[in-house]
Amino acid sequence: MWWIIWVVLVVAAGVVLFVLLRDVWRRAKAVGSELARAQSVASQLSARAAELQALADASPAIRPVDLEDVDAARAAADARRAEDRIRKAESRARREVRDAAVRDRWMRDGI
């Protein structure tokens, strides 16, 4: 009679061990796939960082203003202001076109 109890206990222990090992294996596979995805994201991040560094290296560095030559500094500031005015005017024109299209769509839809 005792041998039946021992056989049942050993089989039950084997089943529990199988279930636990299967769960550990599945979790290990999930961790492996997440690590692969993390490696992919890290490589994309490093590529983007290199791209941004190249853009930063290509852009002109900000230089201090030489106030010894006031006329040249004033001319440079005026040139920057003129560029800003042009950029703002272009932005304003794009915004007006977009707003007009929205108003037309609203009028057409009866809103």
Automatic annotation (TrEMBL):
Keywords: Coiled coil, Membrane, Transmembrane, Transmembrane helix
Bilayer-spanning residue ranges: 6-25
Superkingdom, natural source: Bacteria
Coiled-coil blocks: 35-99
Protein name in UniProt: Uncharacterized protein
